[in-house]
Amino acid sequence: MRPSAVRLLNILVPVKRAVDYAVKIRVNPQQTGIDLNVKHSMNPFDEIAVEEAVRLRERMKDAVKSIKVVTIGPAKSAETLRTALAMGADGGIHVEIPESAPAPEPLGVAKTLRAIVEREKEKANVDIVILGKQAIDDDMGQTGQMLAGLLNWPQATYASKVVIDEANRVAHVTREIDGGAEEVKCKLPVIITTDLRLNEPRYASLPNIMKAKKKPIEKLSPSDLGVDLTPILETLKVTEPPKRVGGGKVENVDELITKLKEAGIEAVKS
């Protein structure tokens, strides 16, 4: 029997619809961004976050009350939510924006997530927010840290292992750092961002995909949450990196030095 004093945990997992990781990225003709008329899927780091939330519930049995996923994006983003629901989440929130609207920036996303966390208090407090450490489209890696700052919650980033002590309401998170790993202890509620080595996301089975179609998705707009997603950064131009040119062979060191000097590269004296 679980002690009645131990409150069940509610987990929130933000997910993002991004260009599929296997797609070769191309700059659009206007040079304002990348070509988005390609296959999209859930951001891989967010997929790991969904998987970890489901595994926490499996490991902790009845200690996790609910897993809710949230996304910000156009109507097509609902597909991303359905994928997360098929993996094991209980319900979703879709903050819908127009197809033509620019992609929300990390600060705008963090403010939206803060508003959702505050809104969820009316039903049940959010205890853990698990999200990918970065999105593979912009690679900014800022949303989790900004959300922790806005909520004034502890944070554990780049997690490679997560253990929750529900009795003491403490998260033990092993995180990757330069040259090794460290373990941090954070009191709940907490923000956790996921690294690649945390887990291997499962494939959703056909029965779970069918069940996901019946799970609830609540639709909201930014104005419902009192947030403004107008970008504060301006992209001036997007171009592809210069193509690499072939190298050449030299017969000896003297020829190498001559070639370097012709290229305007001076030798550094030790």
From TrEMBL:
Instruction: Give the classification, highest ranks.
Output: Eukaryota, Fungi, Dikarya, Basidiomycota, Agaricomycotina
Protein name, entry field: Probable electron transfer flavoprotein subunit beta
Mind listing the GO biological process terms from this record?
amino acid catabolic process; fatty acid beta-oxidation using acyl-CoA dehydrogenase
Q: Does Transport appear among the keywords?
A: yes
Fetch the InterPro entries from UniProt. ET-Flavoprotein_bsu_CS (IPR000049), ETF_a/b_N (IPR014730), ETF_b (IPR012255), ETF_beta_N (IPR033948), Rossmann-like_a/b/a_fold (IPR014729)
Gene3D superfamilies, A to Z: HUPs (3.40.50.620)
Q: Which organism is it from?
A: Coniophora puteana (strain RWD-64-598)
Subunit description: Heterodimer of an alpha and a beta subunit.
Q: Name one GO molecular function term.
A: electron transfer activity
